[in-house]
Write a sequence for this structure.
């Protein structure tokens, strides 16, 4: 997949572009539905499947007070889009100035003149341009004017409601990672490097943990989770504890991962941690012995979950 950052870097005129436009945060099942259609149509005409997205997330620019947490950092979004068959990813640097682009100017200057789209495929709730005055109806009308086919795709639905990035954020924030994974079409993942911790896991409790430093925005609710860990391309079983170690009176938030049946020194290494299911809340124990007993139960529970529970494929 070709990644182009900014309209000014779009030098080449691609053949028969089938274009989709959106934030695509999460690259969830609704987005995948659109990508499948874009790719199928592009392949049918031997054209180019192109997606246009925006960085940073527009809400962070226009309404930073809302504190929107991003589901998929750009690199992860691009990796997933490539996996779903997108040929060219055009990333527009989103600014307040760009947000003031009039809908008609956006269609004429960007979609028609710069990209030369043959067809545009968007979700039914897509809006664009200054004040979000650009609607799918306007896009259809201007499509007729410029000779561009426009298709509007209905939302994917699961568990009785539309699949959306905001719904997935809410589920993850509440620790409902299993439900979120079905909406995403894969387990939710955070990525980070292993840093030196307090060493209590191995020395005090007898269960060594890897402490993760991550740049991911959205972390599941504090608690204990059954996880899969990608270490240098190998998928391993594990248990994650996200919390503040209240038994030890430590206040800072930490992300600790214990990889089952694993003894390598991975300090400084990169891990991708996929959340399969929540095991329990974090809680304070009266002593270290009680904590250790609970941790051993958590390990057995995690093994059972990872062995028997159905969950989407880790991508």
């Amino acid at each position: 997949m070709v990644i182009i950052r900014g309209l000014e870097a779009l030098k080449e005129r691609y053949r028969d572009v089938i274009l989709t436009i959106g934030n695509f945060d999460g690259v969830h099942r609704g987005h995948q539905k659109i990508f499948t259609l874009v790719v199928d149509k592009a392949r049918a005409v031997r054209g180019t499947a192109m997606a246009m997205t925006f960085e940073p997330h527009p809400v962070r620019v226009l309404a930073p007070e809302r504190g929107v947490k991003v589901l998929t950092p750009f690199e992860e979004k691009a990796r997933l889009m490539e996996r779903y068959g997108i040929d060219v990813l055009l990333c527009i640097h989103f600014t307040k100035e760009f947000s003031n682009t009039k809908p008609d100017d956006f269609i004429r200057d960007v979609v028609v003149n710069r990209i030369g789209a043959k067809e545009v495929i968007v979700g039914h709730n897509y809006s664009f341009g200054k004040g979000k005055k650009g609607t799918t109806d306007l896009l259809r009308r201007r499509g007729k004017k410029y000779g561009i086919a426009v298709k509007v795709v209905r939302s994917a639905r699961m568990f009785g409601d539309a699949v959306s990035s905001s719904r997935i954020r809410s589920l993850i924030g509440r620790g409902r990672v299993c439900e979120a994974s079905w909406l995403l079409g894969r387990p939710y993942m955070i990525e980070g490097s292993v840093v030196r911790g307090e060493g209590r896991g191995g020395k005090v409790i007898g269960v060594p943990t890897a402490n993760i430093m991550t740049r991911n925005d959205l972390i599941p609710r504090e608690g204990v989770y059954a996880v899969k860990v990608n270490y240098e391309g190998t998928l391993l079983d594990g248990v994650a504890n996200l919390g503040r170690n209240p038994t030890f009176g430590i206040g800072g938030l930490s992300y600790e991962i214990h990889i089952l049946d694993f003894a390598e020194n991975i300090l400084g290494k990169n891990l991708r941690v996929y959340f399969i299911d929540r095991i329990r809340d974090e809680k304070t124990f009266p002593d270290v012995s009680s904590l250790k007993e609970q941790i051993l139960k958590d390990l057995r529970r995690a093994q059972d979950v990872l062995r028997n529970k159905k969950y989407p494929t880790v991508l």
